[in-house]
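COURSE: Structural Biology Practicum
ASSIGNMENT: Worksheet 4, Part C
STUDENT ID: 0417
INSTRUCTIONS: Below are two proteins. For each, the amino acid sequence is given first, followed by its structure token string. Answer the questions at the end about the second protein only.

PROTEIN I
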Amino acid sequence: MSFTAEVRDELARIRESRIECSKAELAALVHLEGTLGGSRSGHYRVEVATENAPVARKIITLAHNVYGLKTEFTPRRNVLHKTNNYLITFPSQSALAKVLDELGMMGGANPYWGVLPALVPDDECAIAYLRGAFLGAGFIADPKGDFHFEISVHSEQLGDDILALMQRFDIEPKIIPRRNGWTIYMKGIEPIIDFLALVGAHNALLRAEDVRVYKSMRNDVNRRVNAEVANQMKATDAALSQIESIRTIDERVGLDSLPRALKEFARLRLANPELSLRELGEAAKPPLSKSAVNHRVRRIEEVAQSLSE
């Protein structure tokens, strides 16, 4: 099951405590996923298609409980993709035109392209509408990959209105045109988690948080390993350079020509090419401080350079 399907399953099981919020949620589902058909005589019918069984049940439940509408349910199977699809039909009936007008799908004889303000008079109903919008046309990528969120809509007005509802709760998505409509999208874990918390997808939120913590720990480990490897490479390059300087001195004038302190350090380095400067200082007898080690390295390199010149 995809992460999107998991989120929809969780959201579809939430029950609104207020009839007004149930209307807002149903309005979003029908508005985003429904197809309105009708005739000049005023007989309308609506078809809503979804691939998620809990969402299909919720649409039917809301239609029955809130408005007492008759519905027809048709399960279908996509042979090519081997997936189920469910068609919910609101056949022509006396109450349907009034219901469509109340849900914001009718403006007199014309469809209404945005979110009807009367459906979202307060924050609770706005949250219900956003929940319905995601149930109908939402997508969230699996958090194991990139953090990506979308809601696809058929009109710019509807997209702008949904975007405004999200901004009401300090969630700042973006909207872009697509070939078949408009897409509200977000990238990054923070706004996506905020949305999941807002609409009540708490199990999905916890899973996303777990993945975020895992990614953060993995990235931290990778940074530390990379830093340690880089430091080790730097130390190795430095050691090779020091050994090269020591061999230059040995070949040109011999190590016995060096002062005693430099000679002992040079032989210690040749005997321990893998040690860092700190470890060399600790291996010396008596142990050498960091400044003493650096002084000896600098003097040896100066001698080698003068001999090369």
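PROTEIN II
(use this one for the questions)
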Amino acid sequence: MKTIRESGTFSVKMLWTFLQRRWFRTLPNYFLFLLLNITLIYFGFISGDLNKFLLLFFVFLQNFCYPFAYLFTESWSLSVEEWFYFSFPLLLLAGYILFRKQQQLVFGAVILIYLLGPLIYRTCTSSLIIEDGQYDLFFRKLVLTRLDSIGYGVAGAFINSYFPILWKRIAYYAFGIGLLLLAWLCRIHTDPVTHFLQTIYFSLMSFAIALLLPLLSGMKTESIPGRPFRFVSRISYALYLCNMLIVQLFVKYLHPQGRVGDMLNFLLCWVTVFIAALLVYALVEAPFLRMRDKVVSI
């Protein structure tokens, strides 16, 4: 965002640089855990289904417009992210080429497409999904239904970048409204699944979280004990990929007796998750990030 605003343009070279930097960050860990899940399922260590749709995972199509629930289920959100960060800059580039003198307007229009498009899609398909009763799979975990979840964050970055005074002025008001809206949305998220939960709910939830950003983005990191937060944020991607796999192994092979045994098992599980995430970061993620800094020019 900052590079586009300062340069006043968006080129093919800038797009390719952005994609390379993102892929160096996300793909090595993703493919490592995809192959690890496939291997563990093949040898029977964890449950899962290796079928003809397996190849879709290698191009993030496993949940593009139809759900899956047979392996590596946590990858659903990574598909949403990859398709957003691939398609959004492509559409932005096309708009910049066609309307060179209205770049700020183009940026806003592309954001609006990603905010309204998934909402319209959810609205058009909601009656079909109500009959299936598959709210989680057909709405919460599809690429086409959740692209707006990232769109609201980009909208916030757009306002911060192009209208910084407004961003600072609304910080406290937006934060208060965001908290109230989040509290209300969490309260109404109950069964049975309604048309509201399948459509407007996702937009309002993302909007509420975006309202917190003006105040949070202005906080000075020196005022927060930074080391624990930086450590967790650094290994957060590996944590996300590790935790479900390790939990499956613990559930299948460890069966503690009693409340104390459950608590010890719980603690051991999460210690294992953090150790595994740290190893993945140190041995896989960090080397690729160093390589990225060497081979990808900014």
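ANSWER KEY EXCERPT:
Q1: The chain has two domains: 2-162, 228-298.
Q2: The mean pLDDT is 90.
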